[in-house]
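Incident log, structure service

09:12 report received: a user says their structure output differs between two submissions of the same chain.
09:20 pulled the input from the user's history:
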Amino acid sequence: MHFKMGMVQEAEQGLADLCNNAQWRLSRTLSVVTALRHMWILRNSNRSEQAKQVLVRVLNESRISPESRIGRLLQLHSVWLDYETAELARIPLLRSNMPPPVCGGDGDMTMLMEWHNLYALLLKWEVYACSVPQRAELHGRILRHHYESFFYALCINDLYRLHNFMFNLADYLNKAKNVGIDVPAQAILSCYLLIFALEECGGHKEHASWGRITFAEFCLSHADAVGNLPAQWSDDMNPMNRAFYRHLSEKVEQYGTAREQAMFYLVYMRFLRRRGEAEGALYAGVHRQLYALLAEQNHVRDYLLREGMLCRRACHYLNFSTENQCNIKKSVIPAQVGIHCPMLIKQCLIKVFRDSTWIPACTGMTVRRFFG
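09:34 re-ran on a clean worker, output below:
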């Protein structure tokens, strides 16, 4: 619960107290489960190297069968950690290292939701690199894996992970549109609005810096679609207003990782350029912060290059002077979007999955089998 509220240090301390308390004698299995939770916290805090150290220790000290559920979770964590730092050429190879998904009782649904989410993230890179005729088939496969992860998260009522999975889908759809896949900007916007409704319901807004940054990227690229943002939103929720970046800056400074800080600087500079403030003192200050961070944190620079957020010339010279302008038709947001009731959020998901023309018909099966 501490981690879901953004209290990373408190979450880590709670795990340490559990492991070090002499009154508690943890079984071997429970020790591994605790280590898995610790790895999960470290990974989601972008401390991959520390997470790898925990993984190596667990693998060396425990005698967990690779065929067991915990063994498969350890394998999945291993692939996750490799993916965090993998170069593009190695990403297709990681799929072969993933443990096979095993369908079973409720206990395996955690494994299955994480498996499908990770597989979708690995597969998306083929869409970005493949030829045009292959994109439609790969796009459908990626959507199916995303929806499977949603299905299993809903089965075990894990709204926190569902929230994360939906951010992954929205980010993928935005990037897929940029490589030529026909995804209406309104569909992506609807996905983000559902996410924010889920945040209000789940009460974990403080750990959402990355998602807010990708949302700002989307809005700055598709300004026409943003005209349909809910009228009741405050200025600090709208990426077209300066208050959004002041609020997000505080959140990134308090909770953000080095990656999130660099992403924030990039999107904030883009916002300032859009307002014609590229020659101002504020822009220059953000520019200096980004330069210092990239010079000090090579892994952040490599990550931004891999994710397409930074071109190599910009990485060397930090010369951010070009913009991609897109004209997107306005459309109407479904009235249900933005309501904060869990059941209505699920109904919104059904509406998007069933009614949206941008989703192949076969991919609706996952949600239909859950809700009938």
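09:41 both user submissions now match this output. Likely a transient worker issue. Closing.
09:42 reviewer note: The CA atoms of residues 85 and 303 lie 7 Å apart. The chain has two domains: 1-100, 101-371.
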